[in-house]
UniProtKB/TrEMBL annotation:
Signal peptide bounds: none
Domain of life: Bacteria
Annotated Phosphotyrosine protein phosphatase I domain residues: 6-146
Keywords assigned by UniProt, alphabetized: Arsenical resistance
Organism (species): Ramlibacter ginsenosidimutans
Biological processes annotated in GO: response to arsenic-containing substance
Protein name: Arsenate reductase ArsC
One Pfam family of this chain: LMWPc
Length: 166
């Protein structure tokens, strides 16, 4: 019998770039062992995923269909999927007071520069998104090396926090 996939929530302020990249990438690489979600602490009204984030995902062969920006409040309710791990991917969201997460998931912070703040040509901006995606992939590849039996709440948090230093 297959183990239940672990739910991972990636948080950022607007849920338009970094958290969207992480959600799509983990769902793609996780091979059913993980279910990734993303949200923002304060997405703007009518916030949509950054088109450059969607473009680099598609270029990398990562499905981007169905990705949408949403508030972290969506995941704080009793009817929300229970998270096993919550990872902030921007310093602003890491410094905010998070909602109560049902089930008391493990937490970690993986800081990435905001590629959407890069000024310059479209190619320079795309390069920033590609660098962020690559940095995320390196961490996630290491995280995914954990054997299924090692995915206990304590080891998940320990490993996720150790990967923050990479």
């Amino acid at each position: 019998m297959a183990a239940k996939p672990l739910n991972v929530l990636f948080l950022c302020t607007h849920n338009s770039a970094r958290s969207i990249l992480a959600e799509a990438l983990l769902n793609h690489l996780g091979a059913g062992r993980f279910r990734a979600f993303s949200a923002g602490s304060s997405p703007r009204e009518s916030q949509q995923p950054n088109p450059l984030a969607l473009q680099v995902l598609r270029e990398a062969g990562v499905p981007a269909d169905g990705l949408r920006s949403k508030s972290w409040d969506v995941f704080a309710g009793l009817d929300a999927p229970q998270m096993d791990l919550v990872i902030t991917v921007c310093d602003n969201a890491a410094g905010e007071v998070c909602p109560y997460w049902p089930g008391h998931p493990a937490t970690a912070h993986w800081a990435y520069p905001d590629p959407s703040e890069v000024q310059g040509t479209t190619e320079e901006k795309l390069a920033a998104f590609r660098r962020t995606l690559q940095a995320m992939r390196q961490r996630l590849d290491l995280f995914l090396m954990l054997p299924q039996e090692a995915l206990t709440p304590l080891s998940i948090e320990k490993t996720a926090r150790e990967l923050a230093a990479r």
